[in-house]
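Appendix B. Chain record.
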Amino acid sequence: MALLITARCINCDMCEPECPNQAITLGAEIYQIDASRCTECIGHYDAPTCQSVCPIDNTIIPDPQHIESRDALWEKFVVLHH
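Structure tokens predicted for this chain:
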């Protein structure tokens, strides 16, 4: 599934440059993740880099509105990068 940045975000600017899919942008108040571009870093890394660099626990979570299997995330990666 795609990830979601919650209201706990402090706009520290750590996640956006780490996203290999360019799925993270600054929204009106906090950073946001474009679910159509988020692959949870499948195809790039073993774990989502945005979560690993975020200094606030539980700020970037699975998006319950965008549930996708690992295979679907892989297919999204292939479309985005090939």
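Further analysis of this model is presented in Appendix C.
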